[in-house]
Design goal:
2 copies of one chain form a homodimer. The first copy, chain A, is mainly alpha-helical and 193 residues long. Chain A is built from 10 helices and no strands. At the A-B interface, helix 7, helix 8, helix 9 and helix 10 of A face helix 7, helix 8, helix 9 and helix 10 of B. The structure holds a DNA duplex (26 and 26 nucleotides).
DNA sequence: ATTATCTATAGATCTATAGATAATGC
DNA sequence: ATTATCTATAGATCTATAGATAATGC
């Protein structure tokens, strides 16, 4: 139907953006090409002028989801520290909030895609690993001087990811809230000591 | 081809057992009926004499995976404390071992199915939630007397699940090992204090 | 005779491709 | 003329069903 090259770039980015949200919400395997294109306002046939295959898109969508969510949580892309550096207390509060739990589509991709990436391609695992290192670096700096030494950044990230993942899986709102609040308080305690 | 009722029961249980391993390894959405029946040594047509639908099997397979892995990690079925009660140190060591990380098919279903269950049916979420309560109860008893009070069981479970999930997703063996060892040491520290 | 499993297949869905369509941009 | 998207479809796969087959168990 004839579209400018500028429109093509905009469409390309909208496809990736839409996919980045869909995979965080529904997982990697649930994403279908026609469903994705429909949500992006296009038809499925045009997809293959943008991406070589469904797998190629998945790789870019995982990358996009990691980048977008990392900058949203105070950790910049691929391990480079963010300029708008948040305090540890702020990171914990935002990460372990009901808002974050209730909107996986725009939330941290490390939590949303953890088990999916473990079953995915090496490319997605490599991108994922780089972002995990970024989070660890950010937490190490914020935890400087805590008693736990090297252990605390790993423990903190594991607990943050685990609490969000459990809070989302569990069927009971009260229990879900408890995972967020108790884990947050426990982590603040570690950071202070 | 004519099979006794005793064989039918054995086949039924083998199908669930096989499915419980397959879903922990590859996720809920990847499981296909024909693939499952093939691995169980049967043909796909017979499946519907055992289960009303693929969804009905998924519910039973999630339940089976939760039951089997819970008893393996010292927490008995549906919140009832195990008779062979392990110490917290033993639970942490076994849960955060490379062996557990490397064999999700027989490992803890709470870690393996976390994001899948969050996207699944209410039935599977209810079963999952009951088992999470079982783990929390077990950890509460083991953490009796720690300084963190109510926070510690939630923090401990979140960190255990998060560390295993991250250790599996990450692409680098050294980093993966660090998640297990640092989280284990951090949690032992919390338990002592 | 009953029934657990197998063979065959219908209907739906999904990835990927081929050719048509209609605006862009030289 | 080029090209970004659309329409139509091929080929594969998946859930579920129907009828055939061959032991079981009264």
């Amino acid at each position: 139907m004839g579209t400018s090259q500028a429109d093509k770039v905009a469409n390309h980015e909208r496809i990736i953006d839409t996919a980045a949200t869909m995979i965080r919400r529904d997982g990697l395997t649930s994403l279908s090409v026609s469903n994705l294109m429909q949500r992006a306002g296009l038809t499925h046939g045009g997809f293959y002028r943008h991406f070589a295959s469904r797998d190629a898109l998945i790789t870019q969508a995982v990358d996009g989801a990691l980048d977008r969510s990392a900058s949203s949580y105070g950790i910049a892309k691929r391990g480079i520290p963010s300029k708008t550096s948040r305090s540890l207390g702020e990171i914990i509060e935002k990460y372990l909030s009901p808002t974050h739990r209730d909107d996986p589509g725009t939330g941290c991709a490390i939590a949303a895609l953890a088990t999916d990436v473990a079953r995915g391609t090496e490319d997605t695992r490599t991108a994922y690993t780089q972002h995990v290192r970024g989070y660890l670096g950010r937490l190490s700096a914020a935890l400087e001087g805590s008693d736990g030494g090297d252990d605390d950044p790993y423990l903190t990230l594991a607990a943050m990811v685990g609490a969000v993942v459990l809070a989302r899986a569990v069927n009971d709102t009260a229990l879900s809230d408890e995972f967020l609040s108790h884990t947050a308080r426990g982590l603040r305690r570690i950071a202070r000591s």
